[in-house]
């Protein structure tokens, strides 16, 4: 525990050396890199830990050979996957319009397919998360800012 306090103090000293505007730019860069990684995971249809999402259910309407769009193709765009950054924090979140849909799929909750349609339990598909690759990328960005 004492080691973590020492690391915290060391990082606080490094952050204090940067001006607030520089910290803001650094956090913006971190947030943008986080969004790129999350978009790549959604495009590959994988959880942050690398496991594959459960595929869509086959229905009577699905036809053999029919080309279907990838899941969450629009949700991964910058229009819906927003970044926020301040001098103290960086985050990636879904815009308010699609937050409900993202939450239902992320946690595997129940929701209605259409307004008056049947209620369905969706499989858990982790849309956002942190893995080793994410940590390494963020560490590289921070080191580049502190060294440079």
TrEMBL record:
It comes from the Bacteria. NCBIfam families: tail_comp_S. This is Phage virion morphogenesis protein.
